[in-house]
Amino acid sequence: MTDSLQMSTANADAVEKIYSVLKLRYKLDSDKALADFLGVDYRTLAAWKSRGKIAKIDAFVDKCSGINVDWLKTGKGEPFKEEGKGEAAEGQPYRHPDPKIQKIVEMLEAMNDSAKEDILRDVEKEKLLMELMKERQEKKAG
């Protein structure tokens, strides 16, 4: 897939909107962070914006789980398929944007149900412990 987003220069705003939606969704604070996330050079990302044309849709599809390719091409419609459900775009396996979490997901998928239940229990205990420690620190500070 080497489609590109073909827009008039007046649609540089649409590209900026696409960038803004993605930065918000993936908690990125700048176009530079978005470029790093997508695996493209920052200057390339800036050029796409100034031209009003995204020339490498694959970079977005590969990194943005569930992205709506039609939205990416036109800037119209919903940005993500199955918004909020974390589902992958049609034909694409789900990939978490954080490589560490993705590795954990892959490891969990390979385990049997009993092992998954044990890990879930341990994680829930750890979360509770962290919450209790935070409460204790807040009481000390207050």
Q: What are the key terms here?
A:
single chain, 142 residues, mainly alpha, 434 Repressor (Amino-terminal Domain), 60% helix, disordered N terminus
Structure description:
The protein has helices at residues 12-25, 31-38, 42-51, 57-63, 69-74, 99-109, 113-141. With 142 residues, the protein is mainly alpha-helical. The radius of gyration is 20 Å and the shape is extended. 60% of the residues lie in helices and 0% in strands. The protein folds into 2 domains: 9-94, 434 Repressor (Amino-terminal Domain), CATH 1.10.260; 111-141. The longest helix has 29 residues, at 113-141. The N and C termini lie far apart (56 Å).
Domains counted in the coordinates: how many?
A: 2
CATH fold-level label of the largest domain: 434 Repressor (Amino-terminal Domain)
Total E-strand runs: 0
User: Strand portion, in percent?
Assistant: under 5%
Q: Distance N terminus to C terminus?
A: 56 Å
CATH architecture of the largest domain: Orthogonal Bundle
- Apparent shape: extended
Mean pLDDT: 80
Q: Helix proportion of residues, in percent?
A: 55-70%
* Number of H/I helices: 7
Q: What can be said about the biggest beta sheet? A: none
Radius of gyration based on Cα positions: 20 Å
What order do the SSEs take from the amino end to the carboxyl end, as H and E?
A: HHHHHHH
Task: Provide the low-confidence segments as ranges.
Answer: 1-10, 83-89
Question: What is the class of the largest domain in the CATH system?
Answer: Mainly Alpha
Structural class: mainly alpha
